[in-house]
Amino acid sequence: MDIIESISNKRSVRTYNEQPVSDNTLNELIVLGTKASTGSGMEPWGFVVLNDKEEIDMWSERIKAHLLDNFQDYPYLHQYESWLNNPKFSVFNHAGTLLAIYGNTDSHWYKYDCTLAAGNIMLAAHSKGIGTCWIGFAEYMLNTEEFKNQYNVPSGYELVCPMTMGYMKSGVTLNPPKRKEPIIFNS
Questions:
Q1: Is residue 183 part of a domain?
Q2: Taking the model in full, what pTM does it have?
Q3: Which residues, including other chains, have CB under 8 Å from residue 42's CB and lie 6 or more apart?
Q4: What is the per-residue pLDDT across 62-113, written as a single tens digit (0 to 9) for each?
Q5: Residue 19 contacts by C-beta under 8 Å, 6 or more apart in sequence?
Q6: What three-state secondary structure class fits 131?
Q7: Which CATH number does the domain housing residue 72 bear?
Q8: Which end of the chain, N or C, is less surrounded by CB atoms within 10 Å?
Q9: Is 41 left (phi over 0), alpha (psi -120 to 50) or beta?
Q10: Is 33 domain-assigned?
Q11: What is the SS3 string spanning 100-128?
Q12: In a domain? residue 172
């Protein structure tokens, strides 16, 4: 699959089968992520990879509990209350792989650089038949000192992109995304 096809057809995937993403493939995708452009050449990215489904599910339950316990602090999440109360809902879509990208705040550009790295990883994964999804709910737990200490994320690194990864369940077909016409202000 060429890059134009990958960009044109990539969708967020939330339905995964049980086939694990191999360590070699994960490492290849992370290396491709680090080929992204980087402000001032600082390469501020760092990664946490979780491949244990039970561990990922445990973090999902902790995130759901935290959000529900502190729901008043997150009025913009109220539309998801039924999801968070559903015992079958998984923040991480029952994925077998969770990749968290952190940025070193010594770089003013860390958010941009790590987002570019995430984009590279997502497009490269798509080209290999691996689905990905940026998980917004994860920011409430994966950037805590508790999580960062457990997974050896150095101080000075902030979460930029938590993403699930996996091979799509058979029989699931995603149509290319439909988008509004771009707004070009000076036309």
A1: no
A2: 0.93
A3: 104, 106, 107, 109, 110, 113
A4: 999 999 999 999 999 999 999 999 999 999 999 999 999 999 999 999 999 9
A5: 96, 166, 167
A6: strand
A7: 3.40.109.10
A8: C
A9: left
A10: yes
A11: EEEEECCCCCHHHHHHHHHHHHHHHHHHC
A12: no
